């Protein structure tokens, strides 16, 4: 079963919300946990258990695990395994991007089923050229995994690169979105290659219908709303996967409170299914 198909089924059964697992120091402290591998594991496992059966996707931010060294990576492995065993899709936010054998090594690390860090999908950066992402895309499709390519991001620095025009007059973001759509052209149903498009980008003339999922950060604490998503994405809103972290994680550390916060956020976006 392709990632696109698994994602569509998860959304149909649990709603379209993606919740980040971002154990940054301030949140660990707010939860009464130490900024250590021990605190990291307590945080991550509470989130995994609270969100199981409630959200379609969890999105661990790899950097917050990596900052604890090998012990943090071990916690990340256990977090991924636990989430997948509970039936939750895992999108690992790693934003990798490289060339040749290095790109292939990253792809093998996250997208080959035999890897201890194998996940359902990853985020990648295309700014070494879309061709540099071929190892990620080919490996993902070969193993029924997914890839989300940064296109129009929610950070204020993004437009400097993303709105720049190429020799043929298209924007860089437009070429990325077109390339994603091309990769999904032969997919049955929802494609497995997605794009990352922020909820705070304002107006855009780009074609956001890439025939695959659209990961939409910038929701909640960053200012993005359901109305923004409807206005920006139009008909493509049917493929939106809104991503939220701080507003839900701030309800912790009690699992019931986390669960209820995720439910409220998921219900807010149920209007996109109408």
**How is the main sheet built?**
8 strands, parallel, barrel
Report the C-alpha radius of gyration, rounded: 18 Å
Helix percentage range: 40-55%
Could you give the order of strands across the largest sheet? 1-2-3-4-5-6-7-8
Total strand segments: 8
CATH fold node name: TIM Barrel
How many H/I helices?
12
Top CATH class: Alpha Beta
| Global outline | globular
* N-C termini distance: 26 Å
Q: pLDDT below 50 for ≥5 consecutive residues: which ranges?
A: none
Order of helices and strands: HEHHEHHEHEHEHHEEHEHH
Entry keywords:
TIM Barrel; alpha/beta; 12 helices; 274 residues
Could you provide a short overview of the structure?
The chain has 274 residues and is an alpha/beta fold. It has helices spanning 3-14, 25-30, 37-51, 62-66, 69-85, 100-111, 134-142, 159-162, 172-183, 226-233, 246-249, 255-268, and strands at 18-21, 57-60, 89-96, 121-124, 146-152, 193-197, 214-216, 240-244.
Describe it for me?
By secondary structure, the chain is an alpha/beta fold. It contains twelve helices and eight strands. It has a single domain, classed as Aldolase class I (TIM Barrel, Alpha-Beta Barrel), CATH 3.20.20. The chain has an eight-stranded parallel barrel, surrounded by six helices. The protein is globular and about 55 Å long.
